[in-house]
Amino acid sequence: MKLKGKVVVITGAGPGLGMGRGFPIAFAKEGANLSLNYYGENKSTVEDFKDELQKYGSEVILKEGDISNEETVQQLVESTINKFGRIDVLLNNAAISTQSLIKDMPTDMWDRMMEVNLKSVFLTTRYVIPQMISQKHGRIINIASQIGQKGGVEHSHYAAAKAGVIGFTKSIAQELGQSGINANCIAPGPINTQLMAGVNEEWKTRKLNELVVPRLGEVEEVVPTAIFLASEPDGNIYTGQTLGPNCGDVML
């Protein structure tokens, strides 16, 4: 197992959330202990998910709350350190997706997008890095999107937030590299998850026609990228990078 005994914090985790389910399972299978943030899911269902993960031998703690709220982040990080004494990997997966032409977009839609998809990444990073610096080691993995690289009709707010995540990740990679911390992004293309359920069919059809591999990606085709970046020696010299499991939607 590549991550035996490592401690991994994952935001936006939960049994009904596509990659929010896929990432914890993948890390548990590799021997990691997990600290999971979730929000809006049925508590008993989440507890069942915890039991499922523990069958792989992982220790798991759950913290419910809106990850764009600073108190939620502080409690998540403090409970992780109190339980495990360290944090090896931070995986920022929490996100929302809404659609609107810019001329029709309410200000509160824009603001909420920035809070969940960008501000939360700043908050979790700020609270986690003192522990990683003291360890002289850590991996930060931020889930961006190919839309943050190329834009998208009716997704200007989403594109702006995810582009912000990419720029933020490059900056912290430069700031933290001397402290033994690597920071990278994963920018998936359209993936068959709950987020896609909120996207209208016209947009999906248009997007599928743009893809070199003309289909939605699956969760199990994305999560190995996070394992790669979190592992040694696999991810040792990757930092400030954006890896793109995106069906050819963006080619760099």
From TrEMBL:
Entry GO MF terms: oxidoreductase activity
Keyword Oxidoreductase: yes
Entry annotated with the keyword Oxidoreductase: yes
Alphabetical keyword list: Oxidoreductase
Tree of life domain: Bacteria
Gene Ontology biological process: monocarboxylic acid metabolic process
InterPro entries the UniProt entry points to: NAD(P)-bd_dom_sf, Sc_DH/Rdtase_CS, SDR, SDR_fam
Protein family (similarity comment): Belongs to the short-chain dehydrogenases/reductases (SDR) family.
Name of the protein in question: 3-oxoacyl-ACP reductase FabG
